[in-house]
Amino acid sequence: MKKQTAGIHHITAIVGHPQENIDFYAGVLGLRLVKQTVNFDDPGTYHLYFGDGEGKPGTIITFFPWADAYQGQIGDGQVGVTTYVVPTGSLNFWVNRLATFAIPFKKADRFGEQVIQFDDPHGLHLELVARAEGEQNNWTFGGVTPEVAIKGFGGATLYSSRPEETAKTLTDVMGLELVGTEGDYTRFKAPADIGNMIDLKMVTGVRGSMGVGTVHHIAWRAQDDADHLEWQQHAMNLGQHVTEVKDRNYFNALYFRESGEILFEIATDPPGFAHDETLETMGTQLMLPAQYEQHRERLVNSLIPIKVRTID
């Protein structure tokens, strides 16, 4: 029996000033800052995680914010668009909310669904789609209530330098189901209720370059540590150059760059984000991995002060 990921675990992107990042994803989109920590490979930089009220897999977008860093180019070899799913009947709320905050947007139709397309302050391409599937997000913040709150990811649009090869990776390695093709896009589906629809652009364009406003990688779900090791062997058996397992504190991770140059991660659902904080206090203070705790004072002094605040 072939392996099949449930869907997206998280998406990680590079952005600019961390306070601008928080003001948009918490203040405008109403997501919860579920973890503030540092980049394990560059501890002088934040690693910020946003998701639903519980920080469940399939809801988490994470950021490396570098103030004053150079702008990247969205293109082949990257996630081009990150899609969020909202409750059925809530798109008008979001249209009005984007207008209230003077965020330009446009409407489009794809695979029989209406999507609302817009960019975050640092240039990431985002969209909203309404679907009945997925649990209600019970987090309330800044005028975004559970009845309209973002449930998590709807999916993502991938830009590949070799679309046919990426399509094979999605089906043969990750176990996604081919749904259909519309225009330049082919849709694939994973079995989870959220983070499950992947649209692959089947024509190539400009090559992407990493920097502010670009996605660094997309992570797929593994059930637990044992399943994770199976994924490692499975991907290696199918010709992927897979890293060793890396402990990211809130999940274990392994990585490979598929043939279309998109960086894929496979991440474990457990232990999650409440194991070093309570569910109630998640995201309220800087959490450091053990190897950096002795440097806390220096790191705190080097990081830009941030806070979650409502936006008028």
UniProtKB/TrEMBL annotation:
Span of domain VOC: 7-131, 152-269
Domain of life: Bacteria
Residue ranges constituting the Cyclic nucleotide-binding domain according to the UniProt record: 74-121
Classification via Pfam families: Glyoxalase (PF00903)
GO molecular function: dioxygenase activity
InterPro entries given in the database record: cNMP-bd_dom, Extradiol_RC_dioxygenase, Glyas_Bleomycin-R_OHBP_Dase, Glyas_Fos-R_dOase_dom, VOC_core
Keywords: Dioxygenase, Oxidoreductase
Listed name of the protein: Ring-cleaving dioxygenase
